Amino acid sequence: MNKEPANDDTQQLRLIAAGDRQALAELYERYQHSLFSYLLQLTPDYGLAEELLQDTLVAIWKSAHSFEGRSSVQTWIFSIARRQAHNTLRQRKLPLAKEIDLAGLISPDPEPEEFTLAFIARDELAETFKQLPPVYREVLVLTFAQECSYQEVANILDVPLGTVKSRLSNARRMLRTLLDARERMKR
Amino acid sequence: MTPLSNNQKHITDLLPAYLNGSLDPSNAAQIDTHLLQCKTCQTELTNWETIKNTVHFAIASEPLPSTHVLDQVWSKIDAPSIEVHARPKSIHHTFVHVWLVFTHQIRLIHKSIWIASTLVGLFCCSLAFIFSRQAQNHLQYVTSILVLFTAVVASSGIAFLHGTENDAGFEITLATPTSLRVVMLCRMVLVIGYNFVFAAMASFIIALVHGGGIWEIMQLWLGPMLLLSSISVSLSISIGAAFAIAISLILEALQAIPITIERGLFVLQFARPDVWQTSPPVILLALLLFMFAVFYAPRQPRLSN
């Protein structure tokens, strides 16, 4: 998890609950990049991602008083963002790939020593990462960019802890599948 | 976090958590120890490190949100909440609504009802012309046919107005905010009105051809038609369309058969022709039965099937 001072965030939410607009502006300043980059994993549409960001902030403003501190503020904020995104995508009938639909696309798990990413160019890896389905990109972003624990990722995604582990493993396998496909295209 | 077991072969599923620093120190220390002796997990750790760096690299290249996001947020927060105030409906609005419901029932009512009524009307008109040159006593014959067919067709049509088995749009009707009673009332007015118009036209032609007052001919069938239709719709809603039609036909047949019964079954007494006249008690009884049908329609148990 981002090592922002948790007490600051909690205090910030108390101020927001009391109607302090400056507090919301400061919270936004702190989370704008991480939240926006997370939302961009869920939709490639820049305008829609920005709309979702706005809706997330409005939802934070309206529900700050209901924050009970059972999770960290960051987990709470990302949960709201994800809920906003899923509701909007569902309402607009935009594709929302489920993990079960992707099972057939992933290669069988290779022996770990047979699979080495270290020699692949960074740009190629980044391009391949962007080709991953949102369900895998979001779990990777939450784990590595937001540095969330498995339990925090599970809370944000509203899935069991075991699902977080399997999703990470599947994300890695799918990355390999896509890299293999690119390799075959080059030949 | 999941504790590490001593005999665990590989710890690959914990490596992402190990890399992002979210493991507690004791688990992290166990992974350190395991990695020293496990080449497979070392390779896997390298892979996860590459993935981690890739995620950071990809995220860093993502665009920032535009500078006016907060302005948009404030305008959304400050926007007055739209509250829908229930305004009292004007008489004009109510009239238009009922008119729309009324006219739209024409398409929903089964087509055979319209066809049967039309055919009966035409049949009676044809009979009037066929017997127009005949003797005066044929007037009674023609009017008897008119009375018989008008009552039977109207009561049969009205038995199939309502219910899952008769109405293709029944579920949609139930799902709309329009009251089922209004729908039933509109349909009854439509079917009875349609039969009334055709029977009145036939009466007019018969009066024109054979002579006699149009009202005298109309009162021969108006009362029986209303009473039989009201009985039919009430039975249809409470028991079923087939049963309603059967009873209607029996009642009508008993009138057609010239039998004289002084004391007998209630049905036979009720079916006596002198009971079935256009008289205030008959009209009142018909209205009461129609009201029963309209008010009972949404409560019938068969709706829950």
Low-confidence stretches of chain B: 1-7, 301-305
Distance between the termini of chain A: 41 Å
Provide the gyration radius of chain A in Å: 18 Å
Work out the oligomeric state of the chains in this entry.
heterodimer
Percentage of residues in helical conformation of chain B: 55-70%
The secondary-structure element order of chain A is: HHHHHHHHH
Number of strands of chain B: 0
Which properties best describe this structure?
heterodimer; A: 187 residues; mainly alpha; B: 305 residues; 13 helices; disordered C terminus
Fold topology:
The complex is a heterodimer of chains A (187) and B (305).
Chain A: H1 6-17, H2 21-42, H3 46-63, H4 73-91, H5 99-102, H6 122-131, H7 134-145, H8 150-157, H9 161-186
Helix pairs in contact in A: 1-2, 2-3, 2-4, 2-7, 3-4, 4-8, 7-9, 8-9
Chain B: H1 15-19, H2 25-37, H3 39-60, H4 69-78, H5 91-108, H6 111-130, H7 138-159, H8 170-175, H9 180-210, H10 214-238, H11 241-256, H12 266-270, H13 280-296
Helix pairs in contact in B: 5-9, 6-7, 6-9, 7-9, 7-10, 7-11, 9-10, 9-13, 10-11, 10-13
